[in-house]
Amino acid sequence: MAEDMDFVREPERRIPVYKRVGVLVCGSGSAGLAAAVCAARNGADTLIVERNSYLGGQSTAAFQNWFGGPTDILTGFSKEFATRLDERGGAKLLERYKTQTAATGIQPLTYHISIEPEEWKYLAADMVAEAGAKVITNTMVVDTIVENQEVKGVIIENKSGRQAILSDVVVDASGDADITARAGAPIDKLPK
Fold first, then answer.
1. How far is CA 22 from CA 36, 85, 97, 166, 167, in A?
2. Domains of the chain
3. Annotated Gene Ontology MF terms (predicted)?
4. pTM of the entire structure?
5. Pseudo-torsion of CA 57, 62, 63, 64, nearest 10°?
6. Measuring CA to CA, which of 18, 29, 124, 130 is 20 to 30 A from 37?
């Protein structure tokens, strides 16, 4: 770093523990929703931390259609969510042409799920509540609590201030490996 760079020293402080849970899911997009609902259905005390005021991640905030890539995963939770969304009028399962995609070597999609983002939010909230998971919104994960190279929780900030959440399992569903990076794991986003 440059010698003339200024720094500010942050004082050490005690951070109150907001909650202790079995499974903490950071992010509530497609992956986070599946992780949280399935964990709660299997008996885990589950909490979702979401930075927006609603569930859905990029599926709702950026109006992105909900599918993960060149391989269909329309089974299990994905199928249940898509079917329930379709029943509510919030999704249209469209049969795709069985042709090769633009990128060579990638298998074609057979279904594409076009979503209505507002209906996605409501269904996600319903499914989380049905499963018994809890949610805190408008909350940013700003750091991780790491002991012996294991993530034991996160530091959050919201209108209530800075707090800690401790957890047996932390799921990074941030969409961009934010929790993983904050825990100190090497993240290389540049192509080799």
1. 11, 28, 43, 8, 5
2. 17-179 (3.50.50.60)
3. 4 iron, 4 sulfur cluster binding; metal ion binding; oxidoreductase activity
4. 0.84
5. -70
6. 18
